[in-house]
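CHAIN AND CONFORMATION:
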Amino acid sequence: MSVLSLKYFDDSNLRKKSLPIESINDDIKQLALDMIDSMLHYNGVGLAAPQVGRLVRLIVIRDEFVGEDEEYKLGPPEVLINPVLSNPSRETETMSEGCLSIPGIHADVVRPASIHVRYQTLDGRIVEESPVGFRARVIMHENDHLNGVLYIDRVSPEDRKRIDPMLRSIDEKFHP
């Protein structure tokens, strides 16, 4: 396993639609393990394959939970292959989001409070669930990456105007 290099804002890979994974072979398994290592290394709660330059429909996430000490903690990494989202709730929630590919910038994003998702695990099982709150948001954020969408595409015009200079700075730093 190894830590993969991230793609940063304005890298063309972040704006392309990812292809479905046809079979969970050794390459996909290794990619998933390397993405988990990378997500942990960069201290993220999620990572999508396009963020490491691979245009396949694979995401890794960590869920949030409250421990026995009443403190928020992050759960173990999970792999979601070919996620399909449906049935977004009409109820929405606004939360601040950030992204490993857009370091140091956070902005409020309105998303459905819950979503239905169907995906495959690394061992090939099909899972269907209806996550809410933080888990739903992380899955929606990472799934956006699979469709070439960044969270900054979902912020208010005022927030976008506020963060545009910071985005240009990231672009100049990583794509001189």
